[in-house]
Amino acid sequence: xxxxxxxxxxxxxxxxxxxxxxxxxxxxxxxxxxxxxxxxxxxxxxxxxxxxxxxxxxxxxxxxxxxxxxxxxxxxxxxxxxxxxxxxxxxxxxxxxxxxxxxxxxxxxxxxxxxxxxxxxxxxxxxxxxxxxxxxxxxxxxxxxxxxxxxxxxxxxxxxxxxxxxxxxxxxxxxxxxxxxxxxxxxxxxxxxxxxxxxxxxxxxxxxxxxxxxxxxxxxxxxxxxxxxxxxxxxxxxxxxxxxxxxxxxxxxxxxxxxxxxxxxxxxxxxxxxxxxxxxxxxxxxxxxxxxxxxxxxxxxxxxxxxxxxxxxxxxxxxxxxxxxxxxxxxxxxxxxxxxxxxxxxxxxxxxxxxxxxxxxxxxxxxxxxxxxxxxxxxxxxxxxxxxxxxxxxxxxxxxxxxxxxxxxxx
Length: 411
Known about the structure:
Blueprint: H1 2-26, E1 29-34, E2 37-42, E3 44-51, E4 56-59, E5 62-66, E6 69-73, E7 76-83, E8 90-96, E9 101-107, E10 115-117, E11 124-128, E12 134-139, E13 148-153, E14 166-171, E15 181-184, E16 190-195, E17 203-208, E18 217-218, H2 223-243, H3 247-256, E19 257-262, E20 268-273, E21 277-278, E22 298-299, E23 304-308, E24 313-316, H4 331-338, E25 341-343, E26 349-354, E27 357-362, E28 369-373, E29 381-383, E30 389-394, E31 404-409
Parallel strand pairs: 3-9
Antiparallel strand pairs: 1-2, 3-6, 4-5, 4-7, 7-8, 10-31, 11-12, 12-13, 13-14, 15-16, 16-17, 17-18, 19-20, 20-23, 21-22, 23-24, 25-26, 26-27, 27-28, 29-30, 30-31
């Protein structure tokens, strides 16, 4: 009887010990040698992924694994470099903490992206709709019936049909729409087309963005009212956005943020600090496994930052300073003029257009990569909705031809 009890107790102890070891192993504890002695110490886990996958992962300069893999590391700060032939490398310092899963998520951009034209007849004045899925532009090089305003639908179109994926919404038989400046309504249903002439004052038409406009509606006389209504819609949308936030964060935004734009998934805010201040923590205790890039809670007036709502972290976007404001422009126009900076569709990256270059950086300001350094018109740079391409307006440096829309393949 005693022997049976001892055997049962031994089995129970074995199972209990085994379970404890499995649990500790799952939490990152590993056997190792410390000064020649066997040690069972806590580690952290690093999950490395890349798009495209199959990249090499270097830890402190040593090839350690491939992406889409998890490795255990002792607590500390590591230089993580992810590299794949034909792509720009990704590199970041990541802090590993005991029993915490940290992530290295690399979006890799090709060193030799493919350039392909969407249009071939010459276009002007492109304007992106609020949903960032449609691009309106003008054509002026053809007959009156073919000149006018076109809308390019960028949702789910395969590459082979790009040149036929635009729809004409108005022609030049009523007025010179081929020279119009275009702006979208907040709901994306209408486009204002303003036509200027040296012989008469500007005329503005309201165009349906989804159908051909046989009889464009002249809204010149009521333009102020229309713009006022659209401005009210934007304010109401902003109020709805902020209403879903914690009261502490709403207070911070009202006092310290001049919002430039929200990320597409509305989890991050690109803003200029309206005053110098120290941002209080909104989430306490702090989340584990978040971005370990050093944040900046002490903000300086007129400096640029990104605030991550989900992680309650604030990052300084260094070396990007707003330009002096133009008194002839509205606040929103000044913001666009000051900061040629827009969100990439994944909400994890920012597009920075400067000095005839197109850069993409992570939202915390790291891993800035130049995707394209060549001729393009003004700041007409637009991301494809799925992030696979960038659209630019360019004549490829040829002053004798009209510019066209081109895609830069980045995935």
